[in-house]
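Re: How this chain folds, sequence and tokenised backbone to follow

Filed under: protein folding, tokenised backbone structure, sequence and structure records.

Contents: The amino acid chain and a row of whole-number tokens, matched residue for residue.

Body of memo: The sequence and its backbone structure tokens, given next.
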Amino acid sequence: FVCLFVCLAMASTDMGGSSEHITVARVHLDRLRHNVRVLREAAGGRPMWPAVKANAYGHGLVPVARELLRAGCEGLCVAHVCEAEALRLAGITARILVLSATIPEHAAALVRLRCEPSVATRELVDALAAAVQAEAAAGGKTEPQGVAVHVMVDTGMGRVGIRPDELQAFLAHCRSLAPAIRVAGIMSHFPCADAADKSESGRGLAKFDSALAASGFEGSEHKAGGGEGGSGDAVVLHISNSAAILDLPDARFGLVRPGIATYGLRPSADVSSPHVRELQPVLEWKTRVTFIKEVADGTPLSYGHTFRTTAPSSLIATVPVGYGDGLSRSLSNRGHMLVHGTRCPIVGRVTMDQCLLDVSAVAAAGGWDVALGDEVVVIGRQGDAEITADELAETLDTINYEITTTISARVHRVYVDAEKA
């Protein structure tokens, strides 16, 4: 049941170093804790349930989840039940919100794992109630342990969720299934919180407020936390992602769900909060030179011979990183890496397991002799030079989320902590 990529990612991690792995992603736990503190302050001290979906945005699901909980986070968000199962198998007992829509067939697993699923269909709610009753019957219990659900309202994302005008009736249906079903939260999601123009976010927030008011959540207390909505049960309200935490103070409600900012990356260049400048990138991606050769003018390189050298003599280094590791093939003849603090272009096509760098400028810049085993930085700092996930994203016309999330499981994650060194 557990997703294969999660299992592989869990297997390919350690808290130190390993000489068997040439290519590593170094994850700085001290920076992770720092970002939690920054975001907690930006959120006015609200409870934080960071997103650790997609292998913690490529940083490593279980080690990151453990560190976030040690840093005081009150819960965790995943996308799918298989990610929740990986956390439970690792001994993590914290509250887990499953963000993505799922199908009724997963109800038994959600109940067994004590997940808190987001719900937007009566079919899933009914299946969850049935799974609770079945579990209770199998255990000989007369009082079943109900499942906590978070009702998802679509206020503009257009991906999943009930309409705002359906909230009151949907809540009534959920409550009719008590105690098997307990409404623990009402939630939504911003599609444009990271945009410079906040008008769309304002409209979405107004829809959320209106739906809540129509369902009995009125006044200042629901902005600060939650309320009962006339049911007697405590219900927490939440809508804020990273960008909203930073730029939309009226949207913080009872808890916040930071994603990309947890990992020290800004949601977009348009996020204006001064807190964004305090974030520290958590991940560095490094490898080493495995082969060096000097070639003459006109030498073709890599598959398809899309690159030919043009200097009388060029020094070409091979590094063991390719698209099988998550380095996009679209960086062929476009990207750079750092060697001895010098930006060196990727030349020729990026292949599955390796790529080539023209390191001729290294000797010219600093008098270095490039040697086997020299450090190469894919993402991170080396001397005064730096290559960021944002730079790679701009080159590839994508977002920094995709850059770190697609670093594959075979890139060994190494967890370091400057505060405990």
About this structure: The chain has 14 helices and 20 strands. Residues 4-11 have pLDDT under 50 and may be disordered. The longest strand covers residues 375-382.
